[in-house]
Amino acid sequence: MNKxxxxxxxxxxxxxxxxxxxxxxxxxxxxxxxLNALGDECGVVLPHYGSIxxxxxELVYSGLRVYLGGGFYECNILKKVVRNTPYFFVDHxxxxxRDGFYGDRYGDFGDNHIRYAVxxxxxxxxxxxxxxTQVFHGHDWQAGLLPLFIKNFVAGDPAFFGAKTVFTIHxxxxxxLLARERLWEAGxxxxxxxxxxxxxxxxxSLLKSGIVFSDALTTVSPRYAEEIxxxxxxxxxxxxxxxxxxxxxGLLNGCDYEEWDPATDKLIAKxxxxxxxxxxxxxxxALLDEVGMGNRMSRPLVGIVSRLASQKGFDxxxxxxxxxxxxxxxxxxxxxxxxxxxxxxxxxFAAKYxxxxxxxxxxxxxMAHAIEAGxxxxxxxxxxxxxxxxxxYSLKYGTLPVVRATxxxxxxxxxxxxxxxxxxxxxxxxxxxxxALAVYADPVRFQRMQVAAMGKDYSWARSAQSYSAxxxxxxx
Length: 476
Ligand code: ADP
Ligand code: GLC
What we know:
Strand content: 15-25%
Helix content: 25-40%
Number of domains: 2
Number of helices: 16
Number of strands: 20
Shape: globular
Strand order of the largest sheet: 3-4-5-2-1-8-9-13-14
Bound molecules: adenosine-5'-diphosphate, alpha-D-glucopyranose
CATH architecture of the largest domain: 3-Layer(aba) Sandwich
CATH superfamily of the largest domain: Glycogen Phosphorylase B
């Protein structure tokens, strides 16, 4: 292929396999290597959280000073190369070397604005000394100050001449809010506290900084790019996003088939393909055995793997599960943790139907794979879903998704590959589940849908090509 390559530095608070709470990490673990495979040069900047093992990392810079709020933070920069991609870890034990990425059991860390401002500041140092960069690509509010710093603080510096900025919104619901009085601690002067800049409903928003100052905006599905321009999904930023629609595009995430493919997955009981679907039953039996429901092979098994956040819509289940677990006698395995009321909802039903429902509290990648492979149906009734990755994994595993038609769920699930409902309503969810169970009862129809689902291709290569084209457009 004959094309100019771009040098891109991404900044993110998560990247698989180093630090993951959700899909953001999956994206940062897969998109950069895919861009590098296409011929671009992409590096990633991450905090060195306490849980990341850097014993085999290389120290590539010591004593990088990031000046903020009248003082400076001295960081070391470590580097690991994974899948041909350099990951730069910003090492500052006082800021990042704690248990937990964003907070602990007492809540969010009070200095997150400083922690992520330092991350953005360190990215500028990395670009200057280690990885000359043409496009700075920030992800979510944690990287929201990156374009502000570039546009306002280093614009006259030859190291940054012509640099462009891209900002990706993975979730508009997390806005990075902080009190005006604390902005200076993040290295931002009070003059930026204006309604057309960082001010948002009486606070400063780091997400808004990303949206206002970036040259290009993306979000993670075409449908979500439309939705966030409406008051229903705009979290109060829809007006701003409508004003910036000219530079906003929705680029669908991909599925990392190196990690999520039942033909090669090392974390499941037996590998299978669309041609050996009978082996999927081995995975179902193994999962049921593991959770103590081994005698329920003949019943439909519904899986959930999720952060338990109101975004995910599980509150709808309160009005549905008695019917499903009760007289319809389905089985369910739920893996997740998060908001207390949702944890209580699932542990309450697990206590009420102990032989039919298991709530596995916590985070387990192995269990996530076992549920994808072993379940018949996969449930995602999201209130909103910027993209969603689990439904794409489910397609590949022939585990038919039952989803609310919003954001990326609507973009990726079709009538022949899964089940959709539109209104955010318990009744509509119940009706959709009933439809799925009716198809399950007809093995020929169900299997036809499984084969269609497994044949879908959402590989990252296509998404990476769209990002690559966007970078080239910005640089031309
Ligand atoms: P979100 O990013 O909003 O959480 P996505 O569907 O984009 O939703 O991505 C979620 C990712 O996190 C998937 O890779 C999913 O398997 C993983 N995940 C979520 N909860 C858990 C959990 N409790 N244990 C293991 N993996 C999880
Ligand atoms: C966010 C969204 C999710 C998306 C992920 C990766 O966490 O909630 O829908 O798939 O980011 O872009």
